[in-house]
Specification:
Elements lengths: L4 E5 L6 H14 L7 E5 L5 H8 L4 E5 L16 H6 L4 E4 L2 H6 L4 H14 L2 E6 L3 H5 L3 H12 L11 E5 L13 H18 L2 H6 L2 E4 L7 H4 L7 E4 L6 H8 L6
Parallel strand pairs: 1-2, 1-8, 2-3, 3-4, 4-5, 5-6, 6-7, 7-8
């Protein structure tokens, strides 16, 4: 059985005080939830303080990005070594906003994946197609390229620390969400692809999250799907009540 993961990407929101307040509210709201791995990803400047707030709780800390070198003359960057030192257990890489706004490529994402594996941090590896790519029939080719190139040279052992997050770009921040069936179709494809690249056991063990306008009102249906193992949540993770409801999802029997 794959332990579900609900991860909140706070993006460029929340001062240190606001982030610690949100983390405190959240830990209280999900304290009884022992069946789901719950993760939050604040901005860099709030990581250490949020780590202190989360200490002893069932909520884990993630960063939103990293640089693939442990240290060096890389002004403005933050390494896996430093993120681990700040209390992170996971790092999000390959988010569509990084790819679109900051020109990240499959190759640069792959370097980060390898660096995180070497650095002993878990990876939340994001992939997803644009609306144009979906409508022109290129969706599966795009996803195959992103997965194959992004995970290049990661060993079967290293894949144990990787969580895949499928986020259709057209659904991020738009209020649109893939139907339960659309999400399942793609998640099933990704799992099959992992079986090709690695083996059936690795594919069966890898968690695949859905992201893209996940809210309290749609999470239950998504979580009924056999290959949907959780969610990467954006806007709804900025309110403790909403994110707690998502983490405490109630999939129909």
């Amino acid at each position: 059985m794959r332990t579900p993961m609900i991860a909140g990407n706070w993006k460029l929101h929340k001062t240190i005080a606001e982030a610690t307040s949100l983390a405190s509210e959240l830990t209280a709201a999900v304290a009884s939830n022992q069946n789901v791995e719950i993760v939050v990803a604040p901005v860099y400047t709030a990581l250490s303080k949020v780590a202190e707030t989360l200490a002893g709780s069932n909520v884990k800390l993630a960063a939103q990005n990293c640089y693939p070198e442990p240290q060096g003359a890389f002004t403005g960057e933050v390494s896996p070594l430093l993120l681990k030192d700040a209390g992170c257990e996971y790092v999000i890489i390959g988010h569509s906003e990084r790819r679109q706004l900051f020109a990240e490529t499959d190759e640069s994402v792959n370097k980060k994946a390898l660096a995180l594996a070497e650095g002993g941090l878990g990876t939340i590896f994001c992939i997803g197609e644009t609306l144009e790519e979906r409508e022109t029939g290129k969706m599966f080719d795009v996803l195959r390229q992103q997965v194959t190139a992004g995970l290049k040279n990661l060993t079967t052992e290293q894949m144990k620390t990787v969580v895949v997050a499928y986020e259709p770009v057209w659904a991020i921040g738009t209020g649109k969400v893939a139907t339960d069936e659309q999400a399942q179709e793609v998640h099933s494809f990704i799992r099959g692809l992992l079986a090709e690249l690695y083996d059936a056991q690795t594919a069966a063990a890898t968690r695949i999250l859905y992201g893209g306008s996940v809210k309290p009102g749609n999470v239950d249906g998504l979580m009924t799907q056999p290959d949907v193992d959780g969610a990467l949540v954006g806007g709804a993770s900025l309110k403790a009540e909403d994110f707690a409801r998502i983490a405490n999802f109630e999939p129909a029997a």
